């Protein structure tokens, strides 16, 4: 018998053992905790049983690792979207017009203020000091009409908003707006986040018990299938969990677990995955570890499409091709030396583009200081355009495919995501994982680990714990017009005074009855919003029927 | 006075942390919670969107030595003022009030005027916060709960 030969990679390690042991760091690891070898070779892939046809395949074909379309960005560049909104509807309207004039291709992406997101009218006691501060204040159909005043919807093409607990209300507003304007729903695609589960984990705008929130989300998805079949009624989001401390692998896995909960809720209504799989969207954010991020997007396509086939019984290709939405993350951006953030944003944008995302949002370099100035927002649009038109990156599909490192990482990602899904399944699914605080614990532990690593200097943040500068950076920051809140409250009170009070009362009574009966709330919501019922009035009906979210005290 | 000598050592410093206002970003406050825990304190994170009166009640119930407010929304002065008033209304005068989050320098001065000096903005190290609390948490409570 011949002696087994040492694999070439191991032999290389032996030949250079001494030099290889003298690295810059004691261990090389991705932020998700995967060990990084000094170099990747065909041996690495062989050891994992990697198979090109099975694990990677071709663009536009299963397992979709290389993207959902055969020609990728050769046919169509990614859509560039800028998330914006502040003050009252008129203020936001001006910014949207500006962004569109600068070449955004992803339509209008609406940031809402906190009172709106939590279902409070602008003059509610809890809304004090917060109206129009971190997004635009929308309280009734009147505000929604003003946001889009003078903007032809068919030219916008796409409207997005981070409406979560209030997703169905915003959906009803937009359905009513389209109806009033006579715009066909297919002329401008509406895409609402409508993902309340992760709010209980990270983002914090939940105001109902989680079971009620899931029911309302499902109502909206179901209603849109007939009322606006082109719209994307949910965007299951990992981005906020990542920014609150989830690792890149956890971000992907937790999002997929939440996605499973929404799909199962739809299936339990008798909906068929073949009818709604293609309107589901998964949304992630891109942070600084370049290859981890690229691997994540490739692995997520692979895992979700497999779930659609094997777990949800999807039979069509269309049902598997969900929408993959990516945003650069505001979190790694630093208040110190803010221009450095242009480099960070560009790297993140490049990673999500190399990951094959069709729609991407980009943060602005001054986001650690406040709402972006026009100049900062424009610079981010330009970063996308420079990648698109100057770098050559989009000229072939999945150009990093076949990189030993990336393929190895993609495989590791897929396995780790599967392992976390199995763990959450064993717990009883996402809702139970939230109730037990499993996701929340993972996030806060991750955030603490990172804070300690930055404090000890083990993790370098340029300009923050290394290469600090004493030079003061004169940076113009954006200020929301201080009169915006006053103007907003005055408009709201005028709407209340001029609307047909009986119509409002009728709508709200119908909503209450439908909620209590367990019926789909969307038809009653439409009646309410058309009568100019306010968001607070509608949310109060929900609170009355479903109860309210009670914050839980946690002992550390 | 016939004071009994304490038969057990001082209890750990007890800290209530919470968010006020509508902002739901609690990454920072949970990081602080773990840092204080690892420094030997007992930490209760009371969660999101607590009203001022809610917070005062929790401070009483938990017999807290320290109350930390996390505020990122920009409304730091009005929100902190409301909490300070609620503490006063319940006659709580022996709790150390500290504030963390985004605190513009003008707000920092106003808070100092209210006697609040533990104000921690972005870039504060965890060890600075731990040290501040160790040096300033009310000590008189340490021997309060004596068992015969």
Gap between N and C termini of chain B, in Å?
16 Å
Instruction: Write down the Rg of chain A.
Output: 24 Å
Strand content of chain A: 5-15%
How many DSSP E strands of chain A? 10
Question: What would you call the structural class of chain B?
Answer: alpha/beta
The sequence of SSEs of chain B as H and E is EHEHEHEHEH
Whole-number total of structural domains of chain A: 1
Could you walk me through the main structural features you see in this protein, from its secondary elements to its overall organization?
The complex is a heterodimer of chains A (556) and B (148). Chain A is an alpha/beta fold. Chain A has one domain (52-456): Methylmalonyl-CoA mutase (TIM Barrel, Alpha-Beta Barrel). Chain A is 51% helix and 7% strand. Chain A has 26 helices and ten strands. In chain A, helix 6 (89-101) links the parallel strand 2 and strand 3. In chain A, helix 10 (167-181) runs parallel beside helix 12. Chain A starts with 7 loop residues before the first helix and ends with a strand. Helices cover 39% and strands 16% of the residues of chain B. Chain B has helices at 27-38, 52-62, 76-89, 105-113, 126-136, and strands spanning 14-19, 42-45, 66-71, 96-101, 119-120. In chain B, helix 1 (27-38) links the parallel strand 1 and strand 2. In chain B, helix 2 (52-62) crosses helix 3 (76-89). The longest helix of chain B is centred in the middle third of the chain and has 14 residues, at 76-89.
Short account of what is shown:
Chain A has 556 residues and is an alpha/beta fold. Chain A has helices at 8-15, 17-20, 42-47, 52-56, 72-75, 89-101, 114-117, 141-147, 153-156, 167-181, 197-203, 210-227, 239-243, 248-268, 273-276, 290-310, 317-320, 340-354, 374-390, 404-427, 430-435, 438-456, 484-498, 501-517, 522-530, 535-546; strands at residues 79-81, 83-84, 108-110, 158-161, 189-192, 234-237, 280-286, 323-328, 359-361, 554-555. Chain A is built from 26 helices and ten strands.
């Amino acid at each position: 018998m011949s002696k087994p030969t040492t694999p070439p990679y191991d032999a290389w390690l032996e030949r250079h053992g001494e030099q290889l042991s003298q690295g810059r760091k004691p261990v090389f690891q991705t932020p998700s905790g995967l060990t990084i070898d000094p170099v990747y070779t065909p041996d690495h892939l062989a050891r994992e049983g990697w198979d090109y046809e099975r694990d990677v395949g071709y663009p536009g074909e299963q397992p979709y690792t290389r993207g959902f379309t055969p020609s990728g960005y050769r046919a169509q560049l990614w859509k560039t979207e800028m998330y914006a909104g502040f003050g009252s509807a008129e203020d936001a309207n001006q910014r949207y017009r500006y962004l569109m004039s600068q070449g955004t291709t992803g339509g209008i992406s609406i940031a809402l203020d906190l009172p709106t997101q939590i279902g409070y009218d602008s003059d509610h006691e809890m809304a004090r000091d917060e109206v129009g501060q971190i997004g635009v204040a929308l309280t009734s159909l009147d505000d929604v009409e003003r946001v889009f005043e003078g903007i032809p919807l068919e030219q916008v093409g796409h409207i997005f908003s981070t409406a979560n607990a209030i997703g169905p209300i915003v959906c009803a507003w937009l359905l009513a707006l389209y109806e009033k304007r006579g715009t066909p729903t297919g002329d401008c695609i509406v895409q609402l986040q409508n993902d309340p589960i992760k709010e209980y984990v990270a983002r914090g705008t939940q105001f109902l018990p989680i079971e009620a929130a899931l029911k309302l989300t499902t109502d909206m998805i179901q209603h849109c299938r007939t009322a606006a079949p082109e719209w994307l009624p949910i965007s299951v989001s990992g981005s906020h969990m990542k920014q609150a401390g989830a690792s890149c692998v956890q971000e992907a896995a937790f999002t997929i677990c939440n996605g499973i909960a929404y799909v199962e809720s739809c299936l339990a209504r008798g909906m068929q995955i073949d009818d709604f799989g293609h309107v589901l969207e998964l949304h992630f954010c891109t942070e600084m570890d370049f290859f981890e991020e690229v691997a994540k997007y490739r692995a997520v396509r692979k895992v979700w499409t497999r779930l659609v086939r094997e777990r949800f019984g999807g039979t069509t290709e269309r049902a598997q091709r969900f929408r993959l939405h990516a945003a650069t993350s505001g979190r790694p951006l630093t208040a110190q030396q803010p221009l450095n953030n242009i480099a960070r944003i560009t790297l993140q944008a490049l990673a999500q583009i190399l990951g094959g995302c069709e729609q991407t949002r980009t943060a602005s370099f001054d986001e650690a200081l406040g709402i972006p100035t026009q100049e900062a927002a424009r610079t981010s649009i330009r970063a996308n355009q420079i990648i698109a038109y100057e770098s050559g990156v989009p000229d072939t599909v999945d150009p990093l495919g076949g990189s030993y490192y990336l393929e190895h990482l993609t495989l590791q990602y897929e396995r780790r995501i599967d392992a976390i899904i199995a763990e959450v399944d064993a717990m009883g699914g996402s809702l139970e994982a939230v109730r037990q605080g499993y996701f929340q614990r993972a996030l806060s532990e991750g955030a603490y680990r990172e804070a300690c690593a930055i404090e000890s200097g083990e993790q370098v943040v340029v300009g923050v714990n290394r290469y600090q500068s004493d030079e003061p950076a004169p940076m113009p920051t954006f200020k929301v017009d201080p009169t915006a809140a006053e103007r907003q409250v005055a408009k709201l009170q005028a709407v209340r005074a001029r609307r047909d009070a009986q119509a409002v009362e009728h709508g709200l009574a119908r909503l209450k009855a439908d909620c209590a009966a367990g019926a789909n709330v969307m038809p009653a919501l439409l009646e309410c919003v058309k009568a100019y019922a306010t968001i607070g009035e509608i949310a109060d009906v929900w609170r009355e029927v479903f109860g309210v979210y009670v914050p839980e005290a946690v002992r550390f | 006075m016939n004071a009994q000598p304490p038969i057990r050592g001082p209890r750990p410093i007890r800290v209530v942390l919470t968010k006020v206002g509508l902002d739901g970003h609690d990454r920072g406050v949970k990081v602080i919670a773990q840092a204080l825990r690892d420094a030997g304190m007992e930490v209760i994170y009371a969660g999101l969107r607590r009203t001022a009166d809610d917070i005062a009640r929790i401070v009483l119930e938990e017999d807290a030595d320290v109350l930390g407010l996390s505020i990122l929304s920009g409304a730091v002065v009005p929100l902190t003022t409301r909490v300070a008033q609620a503490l006063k209304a319940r006659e709580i005068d022996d709790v150390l009030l500290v504030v963390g989050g985004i605190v513009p320098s003008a707000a920092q001065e106003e808070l100092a005027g209210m006697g609040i000096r533990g104000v921690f903005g972005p870039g504060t190290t965890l060890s600075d916060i731990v040290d501040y609390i160790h040096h300033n948490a009310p000590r008189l409570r340490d021997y309060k709960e004596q068992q015969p």
